[in-house]
Amino acid sequence: MSFEKSEILKQYFQDRPESISAILDFDKHSDRLFPFDFTRNNKDLSPQQFSDTASFSQWVSSSLAENNCRYGIGGYNEHRIIYSRSELFDAFEEPRRLHLGVDIWGPEGTNVFSPIDGVIHSFNFNDHFGDYGATLILEHKINELKFYSLYGHLSLKSISNLKKGNSLRKGDKIAQFGNTLENGHWPPHLHFQLIFDMLNMEGDFPGVCRYSDRETYLNNCPDPEIILKHTFR
Q1: Residue 152 belongs to what domain range?
Q2: pLDDT (tens digit, 9 = 90+) per residue, 34-56?
Q3: CB-count exposure of residue 114 (10 Å: 0-12, 13-18, 19+)
């Protein structure tokens, strides 16, 4: 059923590209994206580097600068080693390592815009090492299909003075990338995730799952490329 929902969503936006606006300020003609790989295939980033927030942040910034890229991107359905930096992902016998969203890496304070119309579903400060930090979740509806978009690792200012149920239009500024003290102690970036069923959660939703739960979670969390391609292509 969720696979069918994904196809409906993909077809809807493919037929109506005008209903989506860019999630970030990005010039397709002059800006470049760096594809980050946080699997075991990445031999350039050591456990010592990604375990230390300052070192990890410096590595991300240097990678972008050296490759003349404004932002870095990647992560959906990626089995990542970097989550070993936090006990948050090791609470079960099988650790959580599979990423369910797309990360966009860039400078602290980068503006984030609502890519489509929606309403504020919930928000929260998930203040644990390795967590989302400041988090915003929007609710959307196309025809009879309801779905949600999650924005993690934001600035605390992004979720101040918000009210559940308030409407947002595509292109509205909704957030900024947070610093390491308010974004869960990560290098500045945005975690963007699509969700069909919130499982009665508010202000939070798993962005990483156990590999054994991969099929279940990927069915519920379709590839954000459905939305993001209208920003970066």
Answers
A1: 2-232
A2: 999 999 999 999 999 999 999 99
A3: buried
